[in-house]
Design a protein that fits this description.
Elements: E1 3-7, E2 10-13, E3 26-31, E4 34-39, E5 45-48, H1 52-64, H2 66-77
């Protein structure tokens, strides 16, 4: 479960071969013991709970880095090494 970004205490991960349960491109986020799975195309919460203020940050980050996230998603499905993605500043 590679970490692809970290910002403001949020850890963003993408798992290899992780298209069985959710079927669509997504990331896993964690903050202070809270976990959620968000779709890449729109930042929609697929599962989990996440603090509203941190969720907005992640959704903005997804919007900014959608092309890079989709490239990593393709690599993850193939079991290849993922690239780190620039964090929010």
């Amino acid at each position: 479960m590679p970490v692809i970004a970290m910002f403001y205490g949020i850890i963003v991960r993408m798992f290899y071969y992780d298209n069985k349960e959710h079927k669509l491109p997504h990331i896993h986020v964690e903050f202070s013991g809270e976990h959620a799975v968000l779709s890449i195309p729109d930042g929609y919460v697929l599962t989990g709970n996440f603090p509203a203020n941190k969720l907005k940050l992640v959704q903005a980050w997804i919007e900014l880095h959608q092309d890079e996230l989709m490239a990593d998603w393709t690599l993850a499905l193939e079991g290849k090494t993922l690239f780190k993605i620039e964090s929010l500043r």
